[in-house]
Amino acid sequence: MKKRLSYFHITRYFADALSIFLAYAATLFSLFGVIGAFFNPIFLGVSIFYWYLISAFSKLYADRRSNKFSEEIVFIIYNIILFFILISASLYFVKSTSIYNATFFGIYLGYMLLFVSATKYYLRKNIHAALHEGKLYDKILLVGSTPSAINYYETINKYYYYGYKCAGIIDDKPTQLNGSKYFGKIEALHYVLKTEQIDEVVIALPNTEYTNIQRCIEVCDFHKTKVRILPDLQQFASSAVTVDNIGLLPTISIIELPLDKWQNKIIKRIFDIAFSLLVFLTVGIILFPLIALLIKLTSRGSVFFKQERWGLNNEKIICYKFRTMVAESKDVDQNGKYQQATKNDPRVTWIGKILRKTNLDELPQFLNVLLGNMSVVGPRPHPTPLNIESMQTVDNYMLRHIVLPGISGWAQVNGCRGETKTTNEMQQRVNFDLYYIHRWTFWLDCQIILQTIINILRGDQNAY
Questions:
Q1: Digit-coded pLDDT (tens) for 370-422
Q2: Largest CA distance in the chain
Q3: How far apart (Å, rounded) are the C-alpha atoms in residues 352 and 324?
């Protein structure tokens, strides 16, 4: 498998070089109608060199096969921005002002984004197809049968694109994980690595078994086998965790929230205002009056729906949406239980179904963003009755209110949207929200926005 994966990594580098060449050629043809007369091999060579140089800092070639493609696009854009800064600075110092002006770079970078994204998407689909067919994966050996080990095993079996296949398990007590082969006790590790083709050993023993963990690491080192430790740290799964060393002792640090820093708050607020104004001045000018007219023509009642929800620090806010249900609809039933929208809900109007499916009913919430009680990206605000129900049954539920709520969020782009039928579904949504809160970056916000747009275009089965 390692040779095949190494071949794939090399192919990515060649594909980017080809993409840069095509972008350069397409730019010359777009500007001058010809290529040869203006083609400069030195500029092309420098472009490719700078691209690879910058990728070492932007981590463009990190393995993201198990992540969403929107994340890869964000890193491509990041790499292009750094590339532009470096190459434009170089041209300034060599006093090159011929054809390399703002128009040239605007077209060049646009083509570069197009071709690089297209080739990476093509390669991504090919590696996913190979993984699905069982042609490209790492064979792992699982040591231990802790809850973390079981969760890890079920995850790699469910999501093939992680690229792992469990060859079997070693544990001091006989263990079967959905038919996975049991190789024996921990003492058998040396024999298994000697007789089986194992790419990686995953140690998932309890934290108290330090001696066994150390012994397994030594055996793996002897056989030159990659080893990974799966510690029992599920209580910190949503937190930003870093591993440091004090002398020879590893320490685990739970770092402060990114949005506690005033610099990050300012960046996020400036982006919120700029993005909201852009929405109002572009699609909003056309869609707002059109949607309002359709709502008025198809049902009686107000164009807008105003609902009390909980925002930052549990403060109550009024959340604005386009009305998608009949005017007589009620939020709670006769028993005082909140009525979530369900599939084929009779309360939803026909235009409301379209608005919900495309997320266009959320457009008025950009007004909430300008008012400062919501953000473009953040945990989705829930209605007051749903908050009261969930705070008693869902772990760490109230922690999602330590940042501004958002129009879209990390939970929503990962499929946690719409009706939450069980406590487990709400818990999963909260876990995604806490992951976002602890790992916020500006680029993560960009990724979520991009993935939201992709979900709108291709449709979301949970949107109803």
A1: 999 999 999 999 888 888 888 888 888 888 899 999 999 998 888 887 767 78
A2: 78
A3: 4
Binning the chain into helix, strand and coil, the percentages to the nearest 5 are 55, 15, 30
**Which DSSP helix (H) or strand (E) runs through 192?**
helix 189-195
Taking only the tens place, the pLDDT of each residue in 208-266 is 788 888 888 898 898 888 888 887 655 455 555 666 666 656 666 666 788 888 999 99
Q: Using DSSP, state whether 462 is helix, strand or coil.
A: coil
pLDDT number for residue 116:
95
Structural domain boundaries in the chain: 2-132, 138-232, 262-458
Return the percentage of the chain with pLDDT > 70, whole number.
Answer: 86
Q: How far apart are CA 434 and CA 416, in angstroms?
A: 13
CATH of domain 138-232: 3.40.50.720
> Rounded CA gap, 385 and 332, in Å?
8
Name, in order, each residue with C-beta under 8 angstroms of 212's C-beta and a sequence gap of 6 or more.
Answer: 186, 205
- Residue for token digits 């747009």? 453
For residue 213, the one-letter residue type is I
How far apart (Å, rounded) are the C-alpha atoms in residues 333 and 56? 57
Closest CA to 413 of 432, 440, 439: 432
What distances in angstroms separate CA 369 from CA 67, 163, 258, one per listed residue?
Answer: 28, 40, 20
Residue 416 identity: C
Distance CA 201, CA 217 (A): 9
Q: Give the 3-state secondary structure of residue 261.
A: coil
**What does the angle CA 45 – CA 51 – CA 52 come to, to the nearest 5 degrees?**
95
pTM for the model stands at 0.71
Q: How many residues appear in the chain?
A: 464
**Low-confidence winner among 9-18, 132-141, 366-375 (lowest mean pLDDT):** 132-141
One-letter amino acid of 329: S
Q: Beta strands 226-229 and 200-203: pairing type? A: parallel
Token representation of residue 205 = 């023993």
As a whole number, the mean pLDDT across the chain is 84
Say how far apart CA 368 and CA 379 lie, in whole Å: 14
As a whole number of angstroms, the distance between CA 135 and CA 327 comes to 56
Contacts of 102 (CB under 8 A, 6+ apart): none
